[in-house]
């Protein structure tokens, strides 16, 4: 599934036959079984916000195949690869696209798929799961502390709730209508339906707030935070207006907290094998289970992107291969 120019997914995204990629040094060729959708994919298709084009191509995407998360089976290995061999079931990320029958990925961003997960479940993890992991790490020790997770029903949020619960925190999940049963099943102690109550209704009682939705103003976040608490900003706002879009908020955060004990800290997830291995241990211990909103076949990728853009999916959207 490729786009050679920026624009509306329904007009620029389409299926194409391309040569099978070859793995280079430190890479493996993977027969893709599933690949996940995330806001970064939307940015690479639409070219919005415009600032993103500085990294991915000013006039058109430098790399036309879309998708990053993937899960599948190793077909071949490139020079210098150790620890992986043909037939291994793996998951991770690829910078060369994953919405395809075959993809190449560096072993530095791969891990063996947990045996208790399907390919669909594993594909949902790499980007959002590692962003959530980095955010929870940044929160520091959580045992006995109160953490609020905004956007708890989304891709990053559903992982973050489980990680915070596993870390011993008292978790308040902020989500949309109808998601309370899911939050209860993930272990959240309290649930706030943002259509019925605002996040500061209990006053400044949270030691950490993780905002994955990107739509709450900083003063409101502070009102729900303890005097020495921390706000972590991860994801959200990909469709915000302006040259920088949602990145404006991330850049303003350190300055907004400059003269206050309450810290505001942007989080950028790092995709790496070590993070996936840590997630593997949590999965195998029963502390982490991917939440899947819907699956779409590769031929319906445009519909999958539209479902993401419509907002408020519960967990992750996953593309499965047409076989």
UniProtKB/TrEMBL annotation:
<dbReference type="InterPro" id="IPR052733">
    <property type="entry name" value="Chloroplast_QOR"/>
</dbReference>
<dbReference type="GO" id="GO:0016491">
    <property type="term" value="F:oxidoreductase activity"/>
</dbReference>
<dbReference type="InterPro" id="IPR011032">
    <property type="entry name" value="GroES-like_sf"/>
</dbReference>
<dbReference type="Pfam" id="PF08240">
    <property type="entry name" value="ADH_N"/>
</dbReference>
<dbReference type="Pfam" id="PF13602">
    <property type="entry name" value="ADH_zinc_N_2"/>
</dbReference>
<dbReference type="InterPro" id="IPR013154">
    <property type="entry name" value="ADH-like_N"/>
</dbReference>
<feature type="domain" description="Enoyl reductase (ER)">
    <location>
        <begin position="7"/>
        <end position="319"/>
    </location>
</feature>
<dbReference type="InterPro" id="IPR036291">
    <property type="entry name" value="NAD(P)-bd_dom_sf"/>
</dbReference>
<dbReference type="InterPro" id="IPR020843">
    <property type="entry name" value="ER"/>
</dbReference>
<protein>
    <submittedName>
        <fullName>NADPH:quinone reductase-like Zn-dependent oxidoreductase</fullName>
    </submittedName>
</protein>
């Amino acid at each position: 599934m490729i786009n050679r120019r920026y624009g509306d997914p329904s007009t620029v995204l389409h299926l194409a036959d391309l040569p099978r990629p070859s793995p280079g040094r430190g890479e493996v060729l993977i027969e893709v079984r599933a690949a996940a959708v995330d806001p970064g994919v939307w940015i690479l298709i639409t070219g919005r916000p415009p600032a993103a084009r500085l990294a991915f191509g000013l006039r058109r995407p430098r790399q036309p195949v879309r998708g990053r998360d993937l899960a599948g089976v190793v077909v071949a290995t490139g020079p210098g690869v150790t620890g992986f061999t043909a037939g291994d079931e793996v998951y991770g990320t690829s910078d060369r696209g994953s919405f395809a029958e075959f993809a190449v990925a560096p072993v530095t961003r791969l891990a063996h798929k947990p045996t208790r997960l399907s390919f669909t479940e594993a594909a949902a993890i790499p980007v959002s799961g590692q962003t959530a992991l980095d955010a929870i790490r940044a929160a520091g020790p959580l045992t006995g502390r109160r953490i609020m997770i905004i956007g708890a029903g989304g891709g990053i949020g559903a992982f973050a709730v489980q990680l915070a619960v596993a870390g011993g925190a008292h978790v308040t999940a902020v989500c949309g209508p109808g998601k309370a049963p899911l939050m209860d099943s993930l272990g959240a102690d309290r649930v706030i339906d943002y259509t019925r109550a605002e996040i500061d209704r209990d006053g400044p009682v949270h030691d950490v707030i993780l905002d994955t939705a990107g739509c709450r103003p900083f003063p409101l976040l502070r009102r729900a935070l303890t005097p020495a608490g921390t706000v972590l900003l991860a994801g959200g706002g990909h469709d915000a207006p302006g040259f920088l879009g949602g990145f404006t908020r991330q850049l303003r955060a350190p300055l907004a907290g400059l003269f206050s004990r309450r810290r505001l800290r942007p989080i950028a997830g790092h995709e790496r094998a070590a993070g996936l291995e840590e997630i593997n241990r949590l999965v195998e211990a029963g502390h982490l289970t991917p939440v899947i909103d819907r699956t779409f076949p590769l031929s319906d990728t445009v519909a999958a992107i539209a479902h993401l853009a419509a907002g408020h999916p519960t967990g992750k959207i996953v593309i499965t291969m047409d076989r």
